[in-house]
Structures are given as C-alpha cells and as structure tokens.
Amino acid sequence: MGQYKKLWYLLMAVLAVTFAILGYFGNEVYKQAPPIPEQYVTTDGKVVLTREDILQGQSAWQSTGGMQLGSIWGHGAYQAPDWTADWLHREAEAWLDISAQQQFGQPFAALDDTQQTVLKAQLAKEYRGNQQNEQETVVLSNARAAAIAQTGQYYQALYGNDPALKKSRESFAMKDNTLPDATARERLTNFFFWTAWAASTERPGSEATYTNNWPHEPLVNNHPTTENIMWSVASVVFLIAGIGFLVWGWAFLRKEDEAEAKAPQQDPISQLALTSSQKGLAKYAFLVVALFVAQVFLGGFTAHYTVEGQQFYGFDVSQYFPYALVRTWHIQTALFWIATAFLAAGLFLAPIINGGKDPKGQKLGVDLLFWALVIVVVGSFTGNYFALAHQLPAHLNFWFGHQGYEFIDLGRFWQILKWVGILFWLGLMLRGTVGAFKQPGDKNLLALFVASVMAVGLFYGSGLFYGERTNLSVMEYWRWWVVHLWVEGFFEVFATAALAFIFVSLGLVSKRLGTAAALASASLFMVGGVPGTFHHLYFSGTTTPIMAVGASFSALEVVPLIVLGYEAWEHWRLQYRTDWMQKLKWPLYCFVAVAFWNMLGAGVFGFMINPPISLYYIQGLNTTAVHAHAALFGVYGFLAIGFVLLIMRYLRPDALFDDKLMKTGFWALNIGLVLMIVTSLLPIGIFQAHASISQGLWYARSEGFMQQDFLQTLRWVRTIGDVVFIIGAVAIAWQVCRLVFKCQRQ
After folding, report:
1. Which of 166, 292, 563, 595 has the fewest Cβ atoms surrounding its Cβ within 10 A?
2. DSSP string of 651-676?
3. Surface-to-core class of residue 12, CB atoms within 10 Å of its CB (0-12 exposed, 13-18 middle, 19+ buried)
4. What is the distance, to the nearest Å, from the Cα of residue 147 to the centroid of all Cα atoms in its chain?
5. Where does the sequence pass through the membrane (predicted)?
C-alpha cells in the first residue's frame, strides 16, 4: 500500500459500508415485498383467482416479451401502456359504472356531482383497504369482482385477434395474437390485476400502498407521499453538499500538481512485440462493430414501430419480427458489443501488464472465448425469436427463450452460459496479470485493476438469484444488481483502472498520479453507486427506508461527474504531448466524449429523473429513454469504441486512421444522439410528464394521448437523428473493418 494507504483504506471503508447498506436493505426488500395472497374471494365465498393463477400469469406475461412490450410498475418499454397503471384505471372506471348502476340505476357519467363524489370516495376506501387477512385471503366486493372480470375481457381481446381492437394493437406496436393461447391470456390478466392490487392497496400499518402510492391515479387517491417529497428535497441538498465538499476537497486536500511526466520519444506500447493472444483480438474488434451496426439498425427499426405500429414503411412485418422482439435484440445487441469491447480491452492489456508475454495456452483461451460469445449471441437471439413466436414449449420459455425482464431478456440457460464465458475471461485475465505482482516496482494500480476484473467477472452472477416465479419486488432487486451495480459500478471502475494503465504504460502519466487518481475515482463512484441502486426501486413494492437510501445516495452519484470536464481536458491535450500521440487521436476523442456524456447523460439527465418526486410522475415515460440513450451509448458506447480503436491502432501499427472517415463517424454519432434527444425523446417526455402530473400515468401512456398528431410528428422527426447516427456507426465500423482486414492505407 505504501503512499496510497489512506486511499486504500478509504476505498475499503466505502465498499464495506455501502455493501452493508445494500445487503441490509435488500433483506428489507425480501421481508416487505407485496404478498401474493393465497386467493381472492368475493363476500359470498366465490373464488375469483388464486396465487397459482397469478404466478402462471407472470409466466404468460414473460412469454410475450414482458418488459419489452409495455411496462410493469414503470419498468419496461414505452410504446404500449404501463399495464399496472392502465389496468388500475380501467378497473376503477368499471367499478364506478357497475356501482352507479347498482346504487342509482344509471351509468356513472350520468350521475350528478354529489353522487359521483360519493362513489369515488367509496371506490378509494374499498381499493385502498383490500388487504389480505390472516388466512392470506383477500375479500373482494361483488362490484370489484365484476370490474375485474370486465377489465380482464378487454386485455384478453387486446392480446388476441379481436378486430375491434386492431387499431389499439397498432398504436401499441403489438402484433395480432400477441398471446395466441386463450388460457394463457386469461392467466396474463391475473398477473396484471395483482400488480394493480399492490399499487392500490395500503401496506398494513401505513397510509401508502405497497408501491408507495405509485402510479399517480386520483381515482384511488394515489398521490405522492409526504416522505416522497421530503426525501426529494433531501436529495437536492445532498447533491449540493456533495458538490461543495468535492470542490473544497479539490482545493484544499489535493497535493500540488506533480510535474508532467516527460513524454517518451517513441510510443512504449508499440515497442513491445505483439503476443499471439493480442493478435487474436482483431476478430473481437470485427464482432464489436458488426454487433454495433446491427444494433443501430435494429434501433431504427424499433423506433419506426412507434409510428406505424405493425408495419415498416407499409410492409407488415410484425407477425415475424414484432416490436417486442426487435426491441429485445436492440438492447441485447448493445450489451453484447459493449461487453465484448471491454473484454477485448482487458485481454489486450493483460500481456502488457505481464511484461509483453503470454501465459501458455492464452491464445487458445482467447479463441475459445470468442466462439463462446458467438454461440451465446446466436443462441440467445434464436431463443428470443422462437419464444415470441410461441413456437417454444411454454415450460421452456424462461430457460431457453425470453425471461421477460428488460436488459436481462436472454433465456436463463444462455444467461448462465454468458456468465461462464465471463468467468472464463476472468481466468484468462488472472493468468495474464497475477505474474506481474512478482515484478519489482509499485503494484497498487495493478491491484486495483485486478480487483476490478474480479468484480466484473463475479458480480454478473447476481442475476441468477431470482427465478421464473420470484416475487417481482425481489426480482427487481437482483436485476438492478446487474443493470446498475455491475454495469454502472464495476465496469466504471474497470474502465477507470484500464485507462490509467494505458496512460501510465504510454509514459504520459506517472504511475503515482495514475494510481492515486484511479483509487480516488473508484471511491467516488462506489460511494453513491452501490446504495444508489435503490433509486430504481422506489415504487417496486419497497418501503420508505429504501426510498430514503436511494434518494440520498443516488444524488451523490452525480457528484464525481462534475469534475469530468477536467478529465476530458486532460485526455484532449494528451494528443499534443508528443508527435506519436497523433496516431491515438481518435481513441482520445472517444474518451473525451465519454467524459462529456457522463456529465450530461448520466449526470444531468440522470438526476432529472432520480429524485422520488420526479420519478413518481415520470417513471416509464420517454424522459427515462433520454437518460438511457445518453448514458448507455454516450458513456459505455464511446468507451467501447475507444477501446476497439486503441486495440486496432496497435494491431495494425503501420496503418493510419482515415481522418475524413473518422470525423464523419465521430461527429455523426454525437450529433445524431443529440438530435434523437432534443428533437424527439425529450420533448415527448416533457409532454408526457405534464399529462402524468395533471391526470395520471395511465393517460400519459394511453392510446388517446400518445397518438396525437403532434406527438406522432415528433416521433417521425426522430428519423433524422436516427439516420445521422446510423451514418456515424457505419463510418466507424467501416474504419475498423478496413483495419481488421488490412485494407487501410499505410
């Protein structure tokens, strides 16, 4: 540890405290998850549905693509409704009509204001008080049982082939016969009902529902809780305090700037002979850009479904490639190509760390890992296709087809195989790096790098801690361990350590400075990033303490992002340190873009939706897509591209980047991403937010609202940004392919 002892102690303390918080309140998630009652019965004892009906409905929902077609509790796709909010509103309206006929002999709309007010009060009292009793049974009024049956008929028709709902299916980008089996459709409605029951029933001993009064639904008195507003204010206070302490710490605690390391006359990495395992990474680069191009075209395809629903410029393709499928492929392809680039970066660095040598058999391992990645991609995508075409037996869907959970859509078998591949990569990395500990000199940066590699390898396995029938709240806890903690946490630390190693190896940054910066950055990322996982769970069947922890620490996630402008400037000016750095100009540009989009996409757009009061109204709206696109591609996408360009620079040392091609690619990607956001996603999200705040989430996601001509025009306008972005992706891919296949000019 030596001179870095304080930084190591700080990092270990941060990890110990934050994971203790994550684990302690994770236990709270398990204990306080909304119950799945043994049965729902009417007042005269007739069974309406059972726990088994709900669990079978959960499996039926997964078989339709789950979160890739509409959303549940706000998590999922944005084109179709949020089924929880939609069911709750439809069922409440049905109850009002049924009760109006029973009590006044007229439809609800025909009643006077006093009569309507009386019925609304009865509705809210009944729905919010429908807790289960000691026998794990919920007793429903006959009016509510009738409302459930009536609402269920609508969804059974919608997910089927009812001609009367053809236009609605087009508006929601649903194919006809989304769920062909009538029994499965009936089960699906049971699951939708349960999610709405949890969102409208008060948790025992509380005045808030199991989902903290989410979604906004005035008919059942779902409004923000007092705690929601208090912790929202607190999150802003924590953000300002965090920024203030960071500025003071930067000003008073940092040592005087170390004199810049003298740049070597020649590129040190280029002086090392390429090992056989490094030479084998060209195919990884090709796989990365191939998947990247596929992903952006799938993205354009998916976005077009939001305007034509079942068609692609007049061609009805939804029966073969429905929205849920292409959106699944779009997201999964992004995760695959970004992860592949990160794995390649690690494998490229390992021999450099090991003194320019490969362990025995390393090249074979690199080749085997590549083909394992190809098998997982092809296998999981094939499973997705047959699952959503309902050509896979229902009992095999979760394992080999589609899990139904956004970002972890691939079947469980393919998920396990993917983790095995990551563990295999971890083994290759350890074989190639642990030997370096025997070499003389400072090993602190190496220790951080190896620790981050181990975390990346091991923590993906957290996605295996839930099953097909796991309670939705518990599943969400573990899903966000992968989507937030693994991706946004440990990959961030891995990237930080990897970049530090690269710049130290190039002789442009001293090892002392690079090590100190990497250790400090790791602590800053983890202090907010680990418990900040809970900001995804405010309304997923959790209690107020979860909201408090998530709101407090997610605000701190933004704090380190404010200094990224300085990091960007540092990366930018490296190209001018020495003549040979000009050959690395474009990877450096990508790293500059990472810093910019980290600040804007993860920082500004992330905090825009993070405070509980904000997320209460806009969870599941296009504002979330703004953050997702800007952060996932802007940060991890550009970082992955930068890694690939860096690798290819050394695999083809005599080749030069084509400046015209690279300018086109780099700027088209940035401009295209900006256009997507400012001309379409953000304006639509803002209009939806107004609708959600004024009337309810159901309305902001409804067919009547989303199909307005103005919003349709905004979705068409997005095509401009999509096309610009696709041009950039193709240009970058063409540059990489020219290097891979040695077509680049010397």
Report:
1. 166
2. HSTT----HHHHHHHHHHHHHHHHHH
3. exposed
4. 35
5. 7-26, 229-253, 284-307, 334-356, 368-388, 416-434, 446-466, 486-509, 516-534, 546-566, 586-609, 629-647, 667-689, 723-741
pLDDT per position as a tens digit, 260-302: 667 788 888 888 899 999 999 999 999 999 999 999 999 999 9
With beta carbons less than 8 A apart as the criterion, state whether 338 and 640 touch.
yes
SS (H, E, C) 135-151: CCEEEECHHHHHHHHHH
Give the Cα separation of 247 and 295 in Å (integer). Answer: 40
Give the separation between CA 652 and CA 655, rounded to whole angstroms: 6
Q: What is the DSSP letter of 563?
A: G
Cα radius of gyration rounded to whole Å, the chain: 27
- Identify the three-state secondary structure at position 442: coil
Q: Tell me whether strands 39-42 and 137-140 are parallel, antiparallel or unpaired.
A: parallel
> Locate tokens 């479904």: which residue?
305
Phi, psi of 222 (to 5 degrees): -85, 100
Residue in 520, 524, 516 with CA at minimum distance from that of residue 489? 524
Q: Is-contact 371 384, C-beta < 8 A?
A: no
Q: Which residue has the higher pLDDT, 35 or 567?
A: 35
Q: What is the pLDDT of residue 145?
A: 97
Query: How far lies 441's CA from each of 1, 211, 495, 506, 680, in Å?
Result: 12, 54, 23, 17, 53
CA 609 to chain CA centroid, nearest Å: 14
695 burial class (0-12, 13-18, 19+ CB within 10 angstroms)? middle
Candidates 598, 592, 602; CA nearest to 645 is: 592
Q: Which two tokens stand for residue 312?
A: 């692609």
The reply to whether omega before 322 is within 30° of 0 (cis) is: no
* Cβ(25)–Cβ(543) below 8 Å: no
**Positive/negative CA dihedral, 719, 178, 471, 491:** negative
Q: What are phi and psi of 203, to 5 degrees?
A: -65, 135
In order, the DSSP letters of 180-235 are: --HHHHHHHHHHHHHHHHHHHSBPTT-SSBTTTT-S-BGGGTB---HHHHHHHHHH
Hey, what are 56's tokens?
A: 């079978």
Give the whole-angstrom CA distance, residue 138 versus residue 141.
Answer: 10
Burial (CB < 10 A; 0-12, 13-18, 19+), residue 251, is exposed
Give the amino acid at 390: H
pLDDT surpassing 60 at residue 500: yes
Two tokens, residue 451:
């620790």
pLDDT in tens, 656-700: 899 999 999 999 999 999 999 999 999 999 999 999 999 999 999
Mention every residue, 6+ apart, whose C-beta is less than 8 A from residue 77. Answer: 67, 68, 69, 70, 71, 323, 324, 327, 406
- What phi, psi does 178 have (nearest 5°)? -55, -35
pLDDT at 560: 83
**pLDDT (tens digit per residue) in 627-637:** 999 999 999 99
Q: Can you say how many angstroms the Cα of residue 427 is from the centroid of all Cα atoms in its chain? A: 27
Stated as kind and residue range, the H or E segment containing 630 is helix 622-631
pLDDT at position 648 is 96
Find the helix or strand (DSSP H, E) in which 315 lies.
strand 315-316
Q: How many Å separate Cα 564 from the centre of its chain?
A: 22
Angle between helices 659-676 and 622-631 (to 10 degrees): 160
Burial 172-184, CB ≥16 within 10 A → b, else e: bbbbbebbebeeb
Total residue count of the chain as it appears in this document: 746
Q: Give the per-residue SS3 of 481-540.
A: HHHHHHHHHHHHHHHHHHHHHHHHHCCCCCHHHHHHHHHHHHHHHHHHHCHHHHHHHCCC
Strand, helix or coil for residue 49: strand
pLDDT at 575: 74
